[in-house]
Amino acid sequence: MNNAHFVDFLNSELEKRGWSRSEAARRGEISPSMFDKVIGGFAKPGPDFLDGVARAFGLTRREVYARAGRIEPEPDSDTPSARDLLTYFSSLMPDHQADVIEHAKALYALEKSEKPYRAVAADSNS
Predict the structure, then answer these.
(1) Could you say which of 35, 80, 89, 126 is the most buried, measured as most Cβ atoms within 10 Å of its Cβ?
(2) Is the sign of the CA dihedral 8, 25, 62, 105 positive or negative?
(3) What is the pLDDT of residues 63-75, one digit of tens each?
(4) Is the CA virtual torsion 111, 113, 118, 122 positive or negative?
């Protein structure tokens, strides 16, 4: 997530709660001027700021850091497909589990590079 998306997230959280920037800064023990600088795009949020946002909005540090693009968002493990995958995965032998993990990493790398999987598969079949 780039800084603009994080600013949109902050503004959305403020609007949801009906808070001013100064109220959020007070609740998160963040400098009000720093809050203004981050929202204005004049400063990038550091760890102290992100921790303060988590405190102010009652969110987990992980969620705020993911929203700020500092870490990957945690996958939703409560979806039907995630539960199915976990059920199948846990029933595999360790060697096959390792194969599944390597295959998933390769697919993830392909998606991160924004190169469509089908195009890569078609190229390899030629």
Answers:
(1) 35
(2) positive
(3) 898 899 888 666 6
(4) negative
Structure-token pair, residue 87 = 């059920």
Over residues 26-62, the pLDDT tens digits come to 999 999 999 999 999 999 999 999 999 999 999 998 8
70 DSSP 8-state letter: S
Please state the pTM of the whole predicted model: 0.58
The ranges assigned to domains in the chain are: 3-67, 80-124
Q: Give the CA angle between residues 94, 98, 100 to the nearest 5°.
A: 115
| SS percent in the chain: helix, strand, coil, step 5 | 70, 0, 30
Classify residue 72 by burial, with Cβ atoms within 10 Å: 0-12, 13-18, 19+: exposed
Distance CA 18, CA 59 (A): 17
* CATH number for the domain running over 3-67: 1.10.260.40
